[in-house]
Amino acid sequence: MTATMDVDKKLLNTGVLIVATLVVAKLIYAFLIPRSGKRLPPVVKGWPIVGGLVRFLKGPIVMLRQEYPKLGSVFTVKLFNKNITFLIGPEVSAHFFKASESDLSQQEVYQFNVPTFGPGVVFDVDYSVRQEQFRFFTESLRVNKLKGYVDQMVAEAEDYFSKWGDSGEVDLKYELEHLIILTASRCLLGREVRDKLFDDVSALFHDLDNGMLPISVLFPYLPIPAHRRRDRARKKLSEIFARIISSRKSTGKPENDMLQCFIDSKYKDGRPTTESEVTGLLIAALFAGQHTSSITSTWTGAYLLCHKEYLSSVLEEQKNLMAKHGNKVDHDILAEMDVLYRSIKEALRLHPPLIMLLRSSHSDFNVKTREGKEFDIPKGHIVATSPAFANRLPHIFKDPDAYDPDRFAVGREEDKAAGAFSYISFGGGRHGCLGEPFAYLQIKAIWSHLLRNFELELVSPFPEIDWNAMVVGVKGKVMVRYKRRELTAN
């Protein structure tokens, strides 16, 4: 009995000593160590060590919806040894979009893309080289190039939908995914892929795509089966494009596609692109455009088929254009489709495929909220903003959860209500999406054909959001009943 009491007494004394030590350490820290004087953002409450990881993994948008009303437009989430500071809304996110790469960098936070895109391109090179590679993208997407791409988009849509019967039911999501990879293959990857190697290359891109998992963000080289398939697919794609590039160079016959633009591109010092670089840039281009376009075109259709007033408006616009131009569809005619443009833009506002944008802070900076509060964001923080959340802020967008394409019409222009970064589905500033014009033209080409040649009816429930994917898209099937008919001009 006495021995037990002695043990209890020792444990009690040890516990008291530990508590006393922690208290003293706290007092020393509070009174003797000088404070930084920084006005740090409020921190989301979370467990010790892991911080807000559990809540973050359950869904960042859910967490943002819960914390924004309590903490405001600037707050920090602690994930292990990382601090992620969110800047929500145009009033505080201007620095995010306008800062130089030396201040806010993409490279560290997007390293998980390197095994997919490959070595020597985009996030595997320093900023000066990446800027030159982005110039290659820009040159391949100039208006004179886009005009040729549109002809290919229209031809692909006509060919694809000619295989539909006079009536029937289809999964619109499935159909649009397949059509968009066909058009992307023709415009970006080249005629050789579209005509002869489509099935092979499509299967390899499927393996690449499935190797891009949420766990890949933290552990891109983890030796799991999906990553091994990704790496094998990347190697085979390199071999395929090496043969295509070699064949084109030997024949000297140019093509009108992004592949040719990358083959012909040269760095400022005169060095031509390598086969490995061309392959990596093509993979990056397809990844940037394929998912986002197929997802947005599906949401556009679902919303139009559920809102007859807006469907009537886009049909009326098509009739007017047919009266003016006949059945012809080209780049300039697509550019006149303003009602359809607003319908796509509104679907993209409600469902941006990239729900979070990230940067790594290399220097301290401060932000000021619209309420006048100022916060200092320390060097070393990961800085984030969320298009999915910011695009539904009620002080910018009236009735923000409603589908209303007219909010972008002349006279309302809610996308400019609070400045340049009120609408950020395509990002903005220094790192705005280079493929935005290509994406709109592609989706317009598809939907103008559908509107002119079919009556469509959504027969499944309105789709839900698939939050589990890296690129957030449409969950499940989107079943549509169609009947072939020709729209007549006014």
From TrEMBL:
The EC code for this enzyme is 1.14.14.154
The principal location of this protein is membrane
Which residues does the annotation say bind heme? 433
Which cofactors, by name? heme
Name the enzyme group at the top EC level. oxidoreductase
Biological processes per GO annotation: methylation; sterol biosynthetic process
Q: Which residues cross the membrane?
A: 12-32
An MF annotation (GO) of this entry = heme binding
Which Pfam families does this chain map to?
p450
Catalytic activity entry? a 14alpha-methyl steroid + 3 reduced [NADPH--hemoprotein reductase] + 3 O2 = a Delta(14) steroid + formate + 3 oxidized [NADPH--hemoprotein reductase] + 4 H2O + 4 H(+)
Concerning InterPro entries, the annotation shows:
CYP450_sterol_14alpha_dmase (IPR050529), Cyt_P450 (IPR001128), Cyt_P450_CS (IPR017972), Cyt_P450_E_grp-IV (IPR002403), Cyt_P450_sf (IPR036396)
Subcellular localization, as worded in the UniProt entry: Membrane
Q: According to Swiss-Prot or TrEMBL, what is its membrane topology?
A: Single-pass membrane protein
Q: What is this protein called?
A: sterol 14alpha-demethylase
Originating organism: Quillaja saponaria
